[in-house]
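S2.1 Query sequence (Voltage-dependent calcium channel subunit alpha-2/delta-4)
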Amino acid sequence: KYKDVEPTLKIKEVDGLELVKKFSEQMESMLRRKVEAVERLVEAAEDADLNHEYNSSLEFDYYNSLLINDKDENDNYVELGDEFILEPNEHFNNLLVNTTYSDIQLPTNVYNKDPDILNGVYMSEALNPIFVDNFERDPTLTWQYFGSSTGFFRLYPGIKWLPDENGVISFDCRNRGWYIQAATSPKDIVIIVDVSGSMKGLRMTIAKHTIITILDTLGENDFVNIIAYNDYVHFIEPCFKGILVQADRDNREHFKQLVDELQAKGVGTVNKALTESFKILREFREAGQGGLCNQAIMLITDGAVEDYEAVFEKYNWPDRKVRVFTYLIGREVTFAPNVKWIACNNKGYYTQISTLADVQENVMEYLHVLSRPMVINHDHDIIWTEAYMDSALFASQAQSLLLMTTVAMPVFSKKNETRSHGILLGVVGSDVPLRELLKLAPRYKLGVHGYAFLNTNNGYILSHPDLRPLYKEGKKLKPKPNYNSVDLSEVEWEDQDEILRTAMINGETGYLSMDVKVPVDKGKRVLFLTNDYFFTDISGTPFSLGVVLSRGHGEYILLGNTSVEEGLHDLLQPDLSLANEWIYCITDIDPDHRKLSQLEAVIRFLTGEEPDLECDEELVQEVLFDAVVTAPMEAYWTALALNMSKETEAGVEMAFLGTRAGLMRSALYVGSEKISNK
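Output structure tokens follow.
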């Protein structure tokens, strides 16, 4: 059959750089639509705040996602719990959602009728029409939300939120990576902790908890170190002496273990620790290393005997490039004025922490101070997070764990009278499932063994076929602890000199070839291949895209030329199917198309029954060609099967064939109950 059609065939060489640039442009425009959706929400939230007068006695019933649809013993809906219609929606993983309205989640430790909450919720009602409008404009959007600095979380589409087994809701939007990253710029931080004898007991416990809480507010774009002082100054990790390290997950966990082992003894001398910290920060600043944005010292102590003016005068005044935040531990107030003076004269913030319960709220304050310059200048920076699983958002509902990235933007108060205070109202965000992005780099264009991958400017993988984020614990699948900080060099390990990694982190466009070993069949065999890597950045984001083509497999593409009539005749044969996870036609946007299988959609597209179906014409053309070329197989198989059944007892049970365009033909020669390999 190939011989018959050979004169009309074309073989085209694949241009990898063209391909990667084209994919990158499509991804960029898809991500730009997400950014536009978030920008519209920010604008709506800021305008709503501008027109809202704070009212301390406001009465307002809102949909509380914990209480919706709950009734009391008299069969009346509970307060804040009204009827809220929920329907399963395929686009949201078949969760029960309400796509006309958002609802409000509050962590257990926030009072749900606090005046600040009621005013914020009332003001943010203005986001509802925008959520709905965004979703209509761009049906590929998933969750959209607003996290408020007062602690409430407005989520669209609305869902019913279920507490954990202890009846507690611990999810607090203000601790999430996307919130913290959007609310502050990158920062270099030195944490100084007093480990002198007076810190023994509860004070030490509170201090440790404070450090751990500060560490949890840091991310990939921040740099950190921790100094403990008593009679002398010591870096709690001696290997990090005199430097700052990236606050990625591994370093943060390492620091947490070391903090846990600290013990209180001796006499405290702060000035050496302060001097050391200022020196490190200055070196980093002058060498152009670190976050290049904000610098701060966090001083955690139970009191300062003097105000150490000389140190600040020498290292921090008059420019005050480093902010100093002070945390006074314990109930003692004798030395409070000194500790407060240190913070107030170094553009910082002073807070007293006397119980473990105070830690979270008090630590969060420093983020507001750091974000003040951004607020005053109205710098709306768009941030993209590294890949994470959305399981935390819906711990309450078992989810197929999807890798997501979040695009987020801060919301500032525009009121003239508080403009100089720099008030952050909250953060707006939206999730982008990474598989939506990868749909734009379809497998069939990459040939056998070809694949596309994405990584961030920190060198971490967003998505890669060798990224295995889950492990099995009993029957359950769980994310590995470091799944979102797997470095590119851990999966593309042939890149020993990190040429590929460095170029991609710097957002370059280019080409590289490497000899690689590829495991197949779940790691039972290995292939030796030469791969060509093509890469470029996705502009407007911190991501880079790589496309890998294998020599001899992915270099060429075969283009068949078949008429629609001829092809359709062969596509309509009974034992033929298409790979359903491939996208021949876009069926998941329009609700009328969702029930169609890919094969049904292709046939309707070709017969013109559904003029508004969007299909990948190149791929459909390949399918038609494959259908025609493989049409005679069935007759051949049948002849073969008859022949064999004469000679032997066990004849052919089934014959099948797959093509590179995802077409599958199969023929069954025994009753389905007789197949030996089910």
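DSSP finds 18 helices and 28 strands in the chain. Residues 562 and 621 are 7 Å apart (CA to CA).
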